[in-house]
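does this look right to u?? nicotinamide-adenine-dinucleotide version
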Amino acid sequence: MTIGIIGSGAMGSGIAQVVATAGHTVRLLDQNAQALQRANQAIETSLNKLIEKGKLTTEAAAKIIAQVHLTQDMQAFMDCELVLEAIVEDLAVKQQLFRELEMVVPETCILASNTSSLSIASIASACQQPERFIGIHFFNPAPLMALVEVIPAVQTRAGLAEEVRALVESWGKLPVLAKDTPGFIVNRVARPFYGEAIRLLEEGVAGIATIDWAMTELGGFRMGPFQLMDFIGHDVNYRVTESVFTAFFFDPRYKPSFTQKRLFEAGYYGRKSGRGFYSYAPGTASPVPTRDAELGQRIVQRILAMLINEAMDALFLNVASHPDLELAMTKGVNYPKGLLAWADELGLPQVLGTLDSLYDEYHEDRYRASPLLRRMVRDVANGC
Ligand SMILES: NC(=O)c1ccc[n+]([C@@H]2O[C@H](COP(=O)([O-])OP(=O)(O)OC[C@H]3O[C@@H](n4cnc5c(N)ncnc54)[C@H](O)[C@@H]3O)[C@@H](O)[C@H]2O)c1
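got this back:
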């Protein structure tokens, strides 16, 4: 199969590596010649690491590199069966790209976008044949992250999502099917990991180091919320939060925080700028957590209840199936357990109790429990 990829930045180069490794011929296009050269270099470096680890032979790596054809000319996509775009996150620019692309590719060519925050329907609407359009959302770095969200739009023809799902699986990835709603699965369900942690900080319940300690040591997450936000970068994380909030018609559940907005405005992006919630300047002492088990459990219980509620609501609204929700959070953001399984472990009444007491205390809509969670607790109580 010949696959076109447009945009050879962080995502496009990684995706090119994935599909070339799966044996496809890749045409990789970027408007910027230097970006193409950087992508070529990045793929080589990444493959060299696999050779060093003994996971790839030199011959196999050379073959993969030879499968990736760099181009700046869209005519190269004439023989493509699938074209995936990973260019700048701008609706008008993406729409214009697909208008031009449709004049070149065969009628049967599948068109896809790797967008994180735009609706698939809005990009597809620029196409002459929107029924062949679909979202294929990889995670960064694409060669290492197994999860891929497959997102059919309202215009997407019946059956295409299943075809794409099987194709993505043949690349050695774990595809999940998501509804075309803001943040798809992962970027929606994960919001409280950041938002509720910041809220705890703002309320003065605990400092960043204590919240991070609680979530890693007691919660079992690989990174604490503040460490993770600093790692992702507040430029990226704040923008995603803001765009999800806007796209949800300003549902208070997704409301961004002033704390993160100020970091973003100040250019304190996190690790990449040397300062975020933490300071990364050489010689700076890290803040010390208060290792209070009771406080730590309260922190974990509150953030976890919010995450579980988000997963429950995504299930309630058919954003994704039960197994796909679990796969998305364990493989897309490496959560230690699926949130729905975690809910069962904790006991649904306890999770609902945490949410309802927060709601009673604050009278804020962000703490409203999902109707599904409430129904399940009632069904269990009624012996259903
Ligand atoms: N970075 C992430 O963590 C991540 C994760 C998932 C999805 N995404 C999405 O993937 C897309 C790309 O993100 P990225 O981080 O790789 O960006 P990037 O800035 O690293 O790369 C984008 C590339 O697209 C090229 N480009 C821009 N406009 C173009 C055009 N009209 N024609 C051809 N090339 C063009 C740029 O020269 C650049 O090389 C975005 O839609 C983003 O939302 C990003």
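The chain has a mean pLDDT of 97. idk if thats expected tbh
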